Amino acid sequence: MATKLDMSQVLEDLENTSSLDELSEVAIRLRDRLQIENLIYHWVDGAGDQYGYTTYPDVWAERYRERNYHRIDPVILGCFQRFHPVDWKTLDWSGKVAKTFLTDALEHGVGNQGYSIPIRGPNGQFALFTVNHTCDDETWQKFIETHGRELILIAHYFNRKALEFESDRQPESSRGLSPREVDAMTLLALGYSRAQVAHSLSISEHTLRVYIESARAKLGAQNTTHAIATALSRGLIVV
Hints:
Elements: H1 7-15, H2 20-34, E1 38-44, E2 50-54, H3 58-66, H4 74-80, E3 86-87, H5 96-107, E4 113-120, E5 126-133, H6 137-165, H7 179-189, H8 194-201, H9 205-219, H10 224-233
Antiparallel strand pairs: 1-2, 1-5, 3-4, 4-5
Helix pairs in contact: 1-6, 6-7, 7-8, 7-9, 7-10, 9-10
């Protein structure tokens, strides 16, 4: 699997997409750069409607929808109760239903390792960004240690782009922060320095300060740390 990822190129590719087809192409290139078997974006809205993009075999994607597996999928159920990224090995696969589902998934080309990042909206929207592969636990752990933070940022960008192209899936009310403000606050929450954030977003530190102060004012926060905590608690950013 990949040991280094050019994040500037990945984020630029995502930023420059103008259709779902182009987003799918970016996802395939990202999967190949990471040298993993599958990459998945899966959205479930407040009414339970599903939408997404996956590099899983078509037969599994169709089987998953036909059998309404999202209602029993331990990944969906486990991640819905969490806010942080989830390694599939930490989920509960002990029940009979979960074991049957897992056996079916493995037989249809799903890898034995997975890492899913939950993404939430303010009106019951829920999405997952997932990477999936077949390998031993030690190899997978090294992969997550190397790319975990990058995957969180990619998930955020991927979700924002998917929503741009599916306007009817946008939250009914405003998220409060502009896309660039969300980008800045997400990177700060991940522990990036202001210089690193400015470099990642290809803006000056002066422009970054404008975004941060604007976000702080919108959130009614006393300082940047307070603004990050408020944005996290409201589900405006995910880390």
